[in-house]
Coenzyme PQQ synthesis protein B
Amino acid sequence: MRVVILGSAAGGGLPQWNCRCPICAMARSEPDRVRPRTQSSIAVSANETDWLLINASPDIRQQLFDNPQMHPQEGLRHSPIRSVLLTNGDVDHVAGLLTLREGQPYTLYATRGILDSVNANRVFDVMAEGVVARQAVAMDRRFEPLPGLSVTLFPVPGKVPLWLEDETMEIGAETETTVGALIEANGRRLAYIPGCARVTDGLRDRIAGVDALLFDGTVLHDDDMIRVGVGTKTGWRMGHVPMRGANGSIDALAGTAIGRRVFVHINNTNPVLVEGSPERADVEAAGWTVGHDGLSLAL
């Protein structure tokens, strides 16, 4: 199984278009010190010919351009992407569907709850009916989006997308609006969880023994954005568990048998993005890799 991280940043990417926080400033002036990143998405293949795209970032056009294995290979119209899977309905995971509208057949997979949020917005009708099949998949039921590649979706603590929040919103609920994906091919297993509000015993049991984990790395500390002065929301309020601190993911997963550990969906204010920083060294010493665009894993 081949896994390519197309985009490793959280919403807005790095640098964000209007942000002058220290990390965004370094990404513009010192890209060797802070590597620019596009928004959250990965691609997975069992044969390195046919690919499953997981989450359609607003940056998907650039991501596909930057990875030659995703280029058209034959005829006048072609794509190696055979199917697309959504893990939630966040803007940074669904907006790229509007780019994938050029008459290219593929199947869009998501839970009924996520798919309903997409179906309710008519702008996504640009994915022409009869060209893009929309397939609802049940939780905890294995399906094959590609031959030789199976996926099982499972609930993780989270929240509804920002654009669907209302007074009934509950943070940390385990529903079908925020899911993880257990991906299997050729005897290898990958867990992909780009959004998670809390590490639970059930989650640890679910991912124990995987060959690689790509996990929510939005914030280092719960108050990252507040410390920098660019926002008032905590990681918890956004539905993301911090790497460090009380109930942080590094300590919470330390005793779980996992092969490669990689943080993805990293917010622009997270200091682990700075190469050579104490925060980066701390995360790496704990056995984690800070994901970046173009990182490829062979499992």
